[in-house]
Known about the structure:
Layout: H1 10-25, E1 73-77, H2 86-102, E2 107-110, H3 116-127, E3 131-135, H4 137-143, H5 151-162, E4 171-178, H6 187-200, E5 206-210, H7 213-223, E6 228-231, H8 249-265, E7 270-275, H9 288-300, E8 306-309, H10 332-352, E9 354-357, E10 367-374, E11 379-385, E12 392-399, E13 406-411, E14 417-418, E15 421-422, E16 426-433, E17 438-445
Parallel strand pairs: 1-2, 1-8, 2-3, 3-4, 4-5, 5-6, 6-7, 7-8
Antiparallel strand pairs: 9-10, 10-11, 11-17, 12-16, 13-14, 13-17, 15-16
Helix pairs in contact: 2-3, 5-6, 6-7, 7-8
Amino acid sequence: xxxxxxxxxxxxxxxxxxxxxxxxxxxxxxxxxxxxxxxxxxxxxxxxxxxxxxxxxxxxxxxxxxxxxxxxxxxxxxxxxxxxxxxxxxxxxxxxxxxxxxxxxxxxxxxxxxxxxxxxxxxxxxxxxxxxxxxxxxxxxxxxxxxxxxxxxxxxxxxxxxxxxxxxxxxxxxxxxxxxxxxxxxxxxxxxxxxxxxxxxxxxxxxxxxxxxxxxxxxxxxxxxxxxxxxxxxxxxxxxxxxxxxxxxxxxxxxxxxxxxxxxxxxxxxxxxxxxxxxxxxxxxxxxxxxxxxxxxxxxxxxxxxxxxxxxxxxxxxxxxxxxxxxxxxxxxxxxxxxxxxxxxxxxxxxxxxxxxxxxxxxxxxxxxxxxxxxxxxxxxxxxxxxxxxxxxxxxxxxxxxxxxxxxxxxxxxxxxxxxxxxxxxxxxxxxxxxxxxxxxxxxxxxxx
Length: 449
C-alpha cells in the first residue's frame, strides 16, 4: 500500500522518522518499487510495483481475484430441440443454464441457435450469470467459400447478425468458424469476417477454434483473436486406455500441442477445448480422472481457460455423448466436475493473480510440475499426478539457490500449513495425490511478510 503523508512541522517528521522501521515491517514494501519486473526466480523483492493492498502477503493472500480477470470454465452447448416457440425454448434455456451455473460453469459456446432464439438464449444466460460466445453459421457459410469474399457483403451480414445482440450483457463474442485449417477456409476470408464484426460490434471479439498446429499460425494471424482457442482430443477409441495416461504418446502429443499453441499465441491468452465426450468414430469417453488431469496439465502449460466439449449428447450423425446423457440426465463425469470446480476455486483465484515462471522445484515421474509467481512476488508450485488410476505420493524438492529462506509451505486449496524438511541446500516436502489430481502449493519466504 503506498502511503502519502503530508507533514507541516519538523517535529512530526522526526516522529515519523522514528516510527519508519515499524511502519515498514508492517507490510509496506514501497521502497522495493525500484526492483525490475523480471523473472529472476531468486529475487524475492520483485512484484511490489502493482496496486495490491499492503495488508496482503504470501501468508495472507487475496481471496478474491483481481478486478476484470477471467479464467472461464465453459462448455460447448448445442441443443437441437429449439422449436421457435418462445415459452418452450426459454424454459429449456433457463433450466439448462441454471444447471450449468450450479455445476460451476460460467461460459458457453452456443451452437444451432437462430433468429429470435439468440435473444432469448442471451437473456436467460444473463439471469444465471453466464457469458455466451454466439455461433454465427451464416457468416461461416459465407467465408467457407473457396474464393475471396466481398468485404462490403460481409460488413452487411455482420451488421445484420450483430444488431439484435450487441447490447445484451451476456454476449461475450461471436464464433465465426470452427477449425478453419481442417475446413480449408481461405485465411483472407477469416480476416474479412473479423473486420466485418469489428465494424458492426467493436465491443465483442470474434473467435474460432484452431486445431492443426501446422496451420495454426496462419489462421491465428488472420483472425488476430483476443484468445487463442484450441482443441486437441488425445483419447482415441481402441488405441488408448487410461493405463496409458502416465507415459502414453498421445498425452505427450497433447502436451506438445499446448506448448506449441502457447508459443504461437505469445502474449495472447490460450484456452483449451477439453475432451469430455465420445463418438462412434475415433474418440472414446474419458473417465473423470482423465478430464481432471488434462485440465491441470493444460494449466501447467499456461492455459488460462477451459471449455469442455461437450454438454449435450446428440443421437444423430457421429452420435456424440457428452456431460448429459441422451435423456438429458447428468453423467458421473458431470457430477464429479461440479465437485472439482468447487475445490478448484482457491487455485483459480491464485492463478488469476499469477503468471507462469521458471521452474523453481523438481520432482519425478509420473508427476508434472510447474511454477507460478503472484503479482505480489511470492511463488506457487503446481503438481499433477499423471496416473489416472492410482494414488501417488510426490516428493517435491526446492533448491535453496532457487528460492532461499523458505519459512512456510501452504496447500492452496485448503490453506493448511504443510511440514517440510530443510535438507542442506534442498527444501523437501511430500503430498499424496488422488488419481489424475493436481495440487497447488504456496511457498512463502522470509521476504514475503
